[in-house]
Every structure is written in C-alpha cells, then in structure tokens.
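Hey, weird one. I pasted the Recombination activating protein 1 sequence into the form twice and got a warning about non-standard characters only the second time. First submission, copied straight from the form history:
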Amino acid sequence: QPLHTLRNAEKELLPGYNQFEWQPALKNVSSSWDVGIIDGLSGWTSSVDDVPADTIARRFRYDVALVSALKDLEEDIMEGLRERGLDDSTCTSGFTVVIKESCDGMGDVSEKHGSGPAVPEKAVRFSFTIMSISIRADGEEDAVTIFQEQKPNSELSCRPLCLMFVDESDHETLTAILGPVVAERKAMLESRLILSVGGLLRSFRFFFRGTGYDEKMVREMEGLEASGSMYVCTLCDSTRAEASQNMVLHSITRCHGENLERYEIWRTNPFSESADELRDRVKGVSAKPFMETQPTLDAL
C-alpha cells in the first residue's frame, strides 16, 4: 500500500476520529489537524509575550469537536427520526443544530509548590452544549425537533472546547486565545457539515447562541467597561443614576455592530473631545469587542 493510504487507514482507528467534510470548505481554518488537541494559540504566538505560548491554552478545533459531539448523539438522532415517523433515507439534508456557548473563569488554579512554567494562576474554560437538533423535511413548512437536550445546564451535556491559563479580565490575552475560535465559528455559519449519521451522509447547519456567559464575561467579550463602570447595563446605555430613578422602562439597545462603531470612535476621537466627553459618547465601550453576543437575556 502507498504510505498515504496506510496513514489514512491508521487515522480512522484513532478514538474520536470521524470522516467529515464542509461544503463549501471552511475559510480561515487550518486543514492540518485531523483530530486531537491543539495549541490554543495556533497562529497567534507572537501576540502574547509574557508567558510561554505553548503552555497557555489547549483546545479542540471547533468543527472537530462539533463532529465528535454529533457522533455521540448518533443514536439519539436516529431514535428521534423514528419517533417522528420520518423515513430515515429521505432525511439527508436540512438538519439544524443549535449550540449554546458558555465561558467562565475557573478561579485560582495556582500550584502550591510548583516548579512548572510561569503561567497565570487563573484559568478560563470555554465550552458548548448541543441544545437541539431539528429537521425540515422536503416540502414541509415547519421544522421538526428530533433531539432536545433534557438537562441543558448539566455538567454532563456541556463539552469543553478550550482551557486556558488566563485571568478572565485580561482582555488582550483572552482575545488572542479565543480569536481563532471565533474565526472558526464564523466560518461554520457560512457552510454546511456533511457527516455520516446512521450509515448515510447528512448535512447540518449550525446556529450559535452565546447565552452561557455570565455578566462579567459578556462585558469582557463585548468590550465594555467592567462592573465598576457607571454604565451598569450590558444591554442598554443607562447609567447608575438613571437606572436607580427608573426601574421599569428599559429597552435593549446594544448590539455587537454598534459596540464596534463606538470602539472606533473611542479609538480615533473624531470630534477631538475631552476624555470625559468621549466617554459619555461611547457609553462605557472601552476595548475592542471580539465575540458576537446577541442581545438576548443572558445567563443571569
């Protein structure tokens, strides 16, 4: 046998290895990792300089992790199709998967008598949960849900994607590590996954909902000032004083795009305002937001 066919045969024996394809192929995603755990800073080594880059984070490639999670649910998917009376052989496309993303600090993880590499003594974990899988059969108006996670907040349904040594308030390092994750996620939104489930190739689309971030993390990812800010709300522009006067009439006004525009104003100060005037204009946006969170009610 030529070497590459042996290599491919060997790969398929690895635990967690699944053959899959994206149509169209994913942009901005390295094609070299077939399986396994990769350095969380892949491609960003030069941007984080105060700790040895290869020790700071470990993660799965996002699409490989999603494939693995779907394969774990293979029996549930087939069972769901049967229960709904859907003919398995006609259901090959039109699957929609909703993913809940979560990210939170894990507190102090320092070694007591450590002689390991100098890394930050805080850790952050980014994980995801498959919330539901539905299918829209040919010619049907409504999608039919064939899988719903019964315990969406349980540790058991939550899959770790990236573990990092970083303090959750270190915006720069967090951005550097989760930047590639965001790029992969963005690429997956514009493509379909082709994966064999129940012996047939089927196509899946993914939707991501960032509802597993607590308020501190939402502020971090959206580039807002931290909790001590006079702008208290992650969803609108009210100040502490306004909020205490008015406990009822709030509207959700913030969105990711608007925060980006405000960051640009903060960065460029186009109207040559003083620091206080500028701050009042951008309403507590001070860092570049890097992860899109929809203005839905968050985990709190």
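That's the output from the first submission. The warning seems to come from a hidden character in my clipboard, not from the data itself. Residues 175 and 290 are 6 Å apart (CA to CA).
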